[in-house]
Design goal:
Helix content is 73%, strand content 0%. By secondary structure, it is mainly α. The protein has one domain. The chain is globular, with a radius of gyration of 17 Å. The relative contact order is 0.14.
């Protein structure tokens, strides 16, 4: 087992748990569809967190050639998947049955966006802090936009703003992974 494989086991477990939370929440929402109507902005947010979990796991492949890690680097690396897991757990109301998803979205779910600010910040700072990579590069440009969008989502209950920002963030996230890291290779 390589060092990278050793470290990725823990990341993969956390990402897997986050994906399981999302899939379980969607399944519960489908099961309770007669008493709990979906809200499209919330559904976009759920989809965004699903892809953010996959993106985090996918992009960590780029660290496979690092020969030495320190414990603080591991902790910083785990902040993003751990935060995404927490968001995946909190993004659905509990219980879903009879829940007003739209009311939950604009009320109890608001702290999720503050957590998203912390996750996006940790993700942006990870490589510069741990490996001395450049902070200001094109790959991190999307992160600055994400942080600004998440702050707006956390502080605003304006439905129009959420209707534009949440799908916009989802598209930005997809663009980021498809533009900057569309493939993984052994080389």
């Amino acid at each position: 087992m390589s060092l990278f494989e050793f470290l990725m086991v823990l990341v993969s477990i956390i990402v897997g748990l986050g994906v399981a939370e999302i899939l379980t929440g969607v399944a519960r929402q489908i099961r309770c569809r007669s008493s709990s109507a979906a809200y499209w902005v919330h559904s976009c947010g759920v989809t965004m967190i699903f892809f953010a979990l996959l993106q985090n796991w996918w992009e960590l492949w780029g660290l496979r050639d690092i020969d030495e890690w320190v414990f603080a680097g591991l902790v910083l690396m785990l902040l993003t998947p751990a935060g995404l897991y927490l968001i995946a757990h909190l993004i659905f109301p509990d219980p879903i049955e009879g829940a007003d998803i739209k009311t939950y979205y604009y009320g109890d779910m608001r702290p999720v966006w503050w957590l998203a600010v912390l996750v996006a910040t940790a993700s942006t700072l990870f490589k510069p802090v741990v490996f001395g990579a450049e902070l200001f590069n094109m790959d991190n440009a999307a992160s600055v936009l994400l942080i600004g969008a998440f702050i707006t989502l956390a502080t605003s209950k304006n439905a129009t703003a959420h209707s534009f920002l949440v799908p916009g963030v989802l598209l930005l996230l997809l663009w980021d992974v498809l533009w900057w890291n569309p493939t993984v290779t052994l080389g």
